[in-house]
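Bumping my old thread because nobody answered last time. Still need a sequence for this structure:
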């Protein structure tokens, strides 16, 4: 065990868990008697009616009947009530800061206490109710990283409505697809926002999406165009600058020129409806298994999957894992840099931390604006103690050297976290040594949109760390490594990562398509939850997630489906066929490498490449823009016509060792493509 990091005795002394054996004992307990451990942890929350059944019940084998998972059956609660009212009344957190908001521009900031967050959330709950939103209805949310986003999620939860957040970097097409899939009755958005220097007219994109919904659903029964509530974030109040927009302040850098398209009768200004709404709203009690939210994640067929998360299990899992894995203290200032449009933002910026009564930082901007030291400057400004980010962000900052970091003290930092993809050792060491000054443990947290919360993660002061390994399972979580035949491999092994039993925070279904849920996660290895990831277990029992084994790729920590990108490229009239694979990238981890076969009469040119890139941005969003597009007069196909992506991956990564090509219809294709490949360094 050469590269192993252990916390100092001093740092351990005050931690929740102080040694590996303490972790192991608690882990064993969590497996032997989940009821005892989780039941104890559940006591910190308010249950309007207690659970009547065992802590969890599940069937993960489609052959034995419908796949189903329930947690705390029979209990009723309200997640928003637990995060706000309960923390205020039981834990006296009314005056504690819940959210520090740091805007894109320097000097643009706000803060909300738990009491203020409750007041605004109640108003918004009344706004939603006044618009006819009821328990179980779906509300689409397409917003920048501003407090109104958190308020909207909590308000939905308060009235039992199901939010469906769509990342504000997704295109109008993607938004429209998600609004229609979940049949949302309302959309909450904002006029616009800045990312660094770049202004995004969000309402324009939202309007385009709503137009698309209308076009596609023309004539179909039961679809009525969603209403739209718009936060004025960038625009100037009617009547000109200086007219108060209270209680909601727009960004410090208003844009008098921002054109916000508007449709009377459908669109409502947030500040106007909020102003008229009452500040008190009783919570609507929900069943432990009622849906809390839907969040879409890429699917290997190209169609995104609306993962459905429910109430009790999700609340418990996110709260407990956040508290233990970050060793949370009442005085901590916790910063998760993920966007709320992703699961990390849902579980570890909103639900887990607020359930724990933590003070959270919500940052609207990007790490490199106005300068590459913005993260470190913010850490000092708010005296951040717990910092959670992604390897891709670390790598992109690492390339600017140590000087921008060393301009700031960062002495407040206590625990660092990593999520989204495997962290490479160079980035791990830089994060540990330079950012954390060698003092702070790094919790490498492995989990997914589907899992709701951490599945593999260290206890920061108890688990000896190995750079690049998410170490051991969280409480109540049982990993296994299977071979191609579905046989479990013990000891040192490499294969498919699965989980042997249900855990509280797991997604219960895919919205509107339970069969797809069963097929995607439980069909390949009946009785196990299949992650889609490969994994290795070393001789010390540490888990090392090696990456996706399906047709998904992880670009800058975002999961993308190669099929979806291929479909976007195929929508260009010049393209007959497209094949997309991932290839390694020094900053993004993985990137997209696309092969396109053109229609006769079209020539491959720079203009065409630019058009193809644009097509992908339009259909999916800027996060999916491919780095490499190669002309492929022919693709390597089997005689039955299947594209051999294995060979394309080799070409993309510059490896001429194609392996067995005898099954190809034309064995010359790989070398021809290889000779013409794009430079990928
Ligand atoms: C939370 C999140 C899930 C996929 C997952 C895996 C990769 C996430 C990781 C990791 C290695 C880690 N992944 N965390 N790989 N080490 N610590 O990212 O959810 O967007 O659904 O992505 O991300 O491949 O399957 P999501």
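Sorry it took so long. Here it is:
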């Amino acid at each position: 065990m050469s590269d192993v990091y252990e916390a100092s005795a001093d740092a351990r002394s005050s931690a929740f868990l102080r040694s590996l054996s303490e972790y192991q004992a608690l882990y064993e307990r969590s497996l032997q008697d989940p009821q005892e451990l989780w039941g104890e942890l559940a006591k910190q929350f308010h249950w309007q009616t207690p659970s009547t059944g065992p802590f969890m019940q599940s069937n993960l084998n489609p052959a034995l009947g419908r796949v189903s998972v329930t947690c705390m059956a029979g209990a009723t609660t309200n997640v928003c009530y637990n995060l706000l009212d309960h923390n205020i009344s039981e834990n006296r957190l009314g005056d504690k800061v819940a959210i520090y908001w740091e805007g894109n521009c320097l000097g643009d900031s706000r803060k909300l206490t738990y009491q203020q967050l409750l007041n605004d959330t109640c108003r918004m709950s009344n706004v939603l109710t006044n618009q006819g939103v009821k328990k179980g209805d779906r509300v689409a949310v397409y917003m920048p990283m501003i407090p109104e986003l958190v308020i909207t999620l909590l308000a939905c939860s308060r009235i039992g409505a199901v939010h469906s957040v769509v990342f504000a970097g997704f295109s109008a097409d993607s938004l429209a697809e998600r609004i229609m899939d979940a049949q949302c009755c309302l959309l909450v958005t904002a006029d616009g926002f800045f990312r660094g220097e770049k202004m995004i007219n969000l309402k324009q994109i939202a309007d385009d999406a709503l137009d698309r919904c209308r076009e596609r659903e023309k004539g179909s029964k039961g679809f009525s165009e969603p209403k739209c509530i718009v936060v004025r974030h960038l625009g100037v109040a009617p009547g000109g600058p200086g007219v108060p927009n209270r209680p909601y302040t727009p960004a410090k850098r208003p844009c008098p020129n921002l054109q916000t398209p508007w449709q009377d009768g459908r669109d409502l200004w947030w500040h106007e409806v909020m102003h008229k709404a009452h500040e008190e709203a009783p919570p609507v009690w929900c069943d432990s298994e009622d849906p809390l939210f839907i969040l879409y994640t890429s699917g290997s067929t190209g169609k995104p999957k609306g993962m459905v998360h429910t109430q009790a299990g999700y609340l418990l899992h996110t709260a407990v894992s956040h508290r233990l894995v970050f060793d949370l203290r009442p005085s901590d200032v916790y910063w998760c840099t993920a966007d709320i449009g992703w699961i990390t933002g849902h579980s570890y910026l909103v639900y887990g931390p607020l359930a724990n009564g933590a003070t959270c930082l919500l940052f609207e901007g990007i790490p490199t604006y106005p300068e590459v030291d913005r993260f470190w400057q913010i850490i000092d400004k708010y005296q951040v103690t717990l910092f959670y980010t992604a390897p891709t962000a670390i790598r992109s900052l690492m390339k600017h050297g140590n000087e921008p970091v060393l301009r700031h003290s960062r002495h407040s930092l206590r625990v660092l976290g990593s999520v989204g993809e495997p962290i490479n050792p160079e980035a791990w060491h830089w994060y540990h040594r330079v950012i954390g000054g060698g003092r702070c443990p790094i919790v490498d947290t492995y989990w997914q949109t589907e899992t709701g919360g951490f599945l593999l993660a260290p206890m920061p002061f108890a688990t000896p760390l190995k750079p690049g390994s998410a170490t051991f399972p969280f409480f109540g979580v049982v990993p296994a490594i299977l071979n191609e035949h579905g046989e479990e491999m013990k000891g040192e092994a490499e294969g498919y990562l699965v989980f042997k039993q249900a855990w509280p925070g797991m997604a219960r279904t895919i919205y509107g398509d339970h069969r797809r849920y069963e097929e995607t996660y439980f069909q390949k290895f009946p009785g196990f939850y299949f992650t889609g990831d490969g994994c290795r277990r070393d001789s010390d029992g540490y888990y090392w997630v090696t990456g996706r084994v399906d047709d998904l790729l992880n670009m800058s920590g975002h999961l993308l489906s190669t099929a979806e990108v291929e479909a976007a490229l195929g929508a260009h009239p010049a393209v007959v066929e497209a094949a997309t694979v991932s290839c390694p990238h020094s900053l993004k981890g993985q990137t997209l490498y696309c092969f396109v076969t053109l229609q006769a009469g079209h020539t491959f040119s720079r203009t065409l490449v630019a058009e193809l890139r644009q097509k992908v941005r339009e259909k999916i969003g800027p996060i999916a823009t491919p780095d490499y597009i190669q002309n492929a007069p022919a693709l390597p196909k089997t005689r039955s016509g299947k594209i051999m992506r294995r060979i394309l991956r080799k070409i993309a990564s510059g490896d001429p060792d194609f392996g067995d090509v005898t099954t190809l219809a034309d064995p010359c294709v790989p070398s021809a493509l290889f000779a013409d490949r794009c430079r990928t360094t």
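The longest strand covers residues 575-585. Let me know if any region looks off to you.
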